[in-house]
């Protein structure tokens, strides 16, 4: 059964692998907290061990150049999608408070995005990310 909404993450293609994974993890946590309707029920194995819930829908990960990220981010904003951002400056901070301060210090147009995540209606997400390729 197809879902009506979609989660997508866009990461800058020239990042180191560990950075791509880190950015993806942080961004998806933003979607989980900011859009709780995306999270399913907890898991439990046959032995009765309980596990944390996960998203109830797929997460697509795209790779893009810096200009492509900027353009897709602008389209996502115009479509009023729920967005989490990760800027290059966040690689040098060590805590959430400093991360928020780094983002707060820069205007939207000047954000040095290395990635962002979106959640929203499937067609709006698809239009915002039009032209981007899935991460290899």
Automatic annotation (TrEMBL):
<dbReference type="Pfam" id="PF09391">
    <property type="entry name" value="DUF2000"/>
</dbReference>
<protein>
    <submittedName>
        <fullName>DUF2000 domain-containing protein</fullName>
    </submittedName>
</protein>
<dbReference type="InterPro" id="IPR018988">
    <property type="entry name" value="DUF2000"/>
</dbReference>
<dbReference type="InterPro" id="IPR023476">
    <property type="entry name" value="Pep_tRNA_hydro_II_dom_sf"/>
</dbReference>
